[in-house]
């Protein structure tokens, strides 16, 4: 299929920079961008401690069933640098404090790594790849006080500085060409009210990320087919299955990779390959009309030679055939 060949032609490491020139004038919120779900769980290991976002029962079960719990907690095998190299441009961050420490940690029921290593890798990546833009979505904060938010925001401001893309009233003015000219490469979405004082970070409503809460492929496909989005904001399609406690107990000796990530790649990704990026048109909220994709996230994004990011990046080629959905920025 010719569409598959064009995906192979992309150098995943620099795919934004390598997009056809006319797509660099398309608003970022109308491009298809691959992301990873619970991006930092690769840092969870057998020595990880139970974190503040854990279900209470985990405290009792973890010492007895450590291996099983790890298999159902870890959602990514590749570290931050590897994810960026295979084209991932959106990272889903869950953050927690630790008692008697001023450091911040990634979390998903269990503590992952302290945050500075991964976030510094993002800075090194954008420094080496001037045409690429990375979205950091600070999704959840566990054990945070107002002081912790101040510390974290100051850390992010100091780390990325002039590379940060400040929020704007009209997100449609933000294109790759626009960002390249200004040498801005990092978008931080900060999903907490603390952000309203800081124009350098994007507010949650600028990139809605509705959680499907589905443990079946059919339920997930139905959710993705019928989700709605606003034309003036970005959007995250979460192509992930969420196992319930019962789901896990019935598949105790298996893993999230085998029972959630593999079925999504086999059965949901082919459906997603029929979606298109672009501008949500007036009246497109009617039943049966799919919302255009922007960010799409999945578990274990490196599977099968990075088939997931390749598929999502390739959706952008549809904008060449159907340019009516492109908003032209005259700014």
From TrEMBL:
CDD domains: PI-PLCXD1c (cd08616). GO terms for biological process: lipid metabolic process. GO terms for molecular function: phosphoric diester hydrolase activity. This is Phosphatidylinositol-specific phospholipase C X domain-containing protein. The lineage of its organism: Eukaryota, Metazoa, Ecdysozoa, Arthropoda, Hexapoda. It comes from the Eukaryota. Residues 22-191 form the Phosphatidylinositol-specific phospholipase C X domain.
